[in-house]
Known about the structure:
The chain has helices at 14-26, 40-50, 59-63, 80-89, 104-117, 132-142, 176-192, 285-299, 308-326, and strands spanning 5-10, 30-36, 54-56, 70-73, 93-96, 121-123, 148-158, 198-206, 212-222, 226-233, 235-246, 249-253, 267-271, 274-278, 330-331. The chain is α/β, with parallel strands linked by helices. It is globular, with a radius of gyration of 20 Å.
Amino acid sequence: MKEKLRWGVLGCANIAIHSVIPAIKNSESSVVLAIASRSLEKARSTAAELGIERSYGSYDALLQDPDIDAVYIPLPNHLHKEWTIKAAKAGKHVLCEKPLALNQEEASEMVTACKEAGVKLGEAFMYRYHPRYERIKEILNSGEIGTIRGLHGSFTFNNAEDKDNVRYRAEWGGGSIYDVGCYPISAARLLLEQEPEAVTVQAFFSPEHDNVDMMVTGLIEFPNQLGVTFMCGMWANFQNTLQIVGTKGKIDVSNAFIVNSNLGGSFTVTVDGETRTEPVEEFNQYTLQVDEFAESILAGTSLRFPSEDSIKNMKVIDACLLSAKNKQRVSLT
């Protein structure tokens, strides 16, 4: 029987219950062995509902389970650093939800702690594992759409009525840049294979929502005078798109980060006025993420996306937040 990675889940967040735990259960490489909550009753009921063998009434108790190989952390952003470091010290590999931390300094501490403990640390940007992004990079590198002149990403939704949501707690790492803006920032860096030089961001901070950024429009300056623009928001019509414009054509991804089952992973390429659809087999990108992370641990190989990348992404996020608050251009060089 093939060896499987044994997972523990810290918390009963929606993303864990509805996306990541089902992905682990459907993977070939992994099994969910335990789940923990601050409430033992909640942990037990969630475990019973999802068919998980073990349940714990504290995160520390789960980390003490010697049978757990890795943990998934879907906790609010301000808890990522604390529990990643505790998990590392307990000898557990860590897949932590995005954004990895509240700032670049925290991310660096987390990466260092995991390296010192000899465990792997992954940031749960599930979109990166969908094979369409490798195909998009192939097209960009082939020169088919010419020299890249611009990239625009949008990730917005309207959840403003749910004012008790953790996304609207400033001290907990709330706000749209942390929650969804991190996606187009990450995607731009992934596809351009470069690091930004400066950012300029305009944000709407809502007094009704603990003054977190509810809508953001940003410009990210990359080398060679290339500008990337993005929009992110939690009080706006739903958008989930990415467009790359070149001198000879463009690529449009209509479901860039969350894959709509009706659209699958397909995207369109337009060159000289002619548009074709690039068909991509339908995948569960959460399962792809789990499998790749698990296989890296089981086989002792390097992660495709090293944890240092998360430090670099947090550096850009830090600059975006600073620019939004101070209404000024922030240099990254």
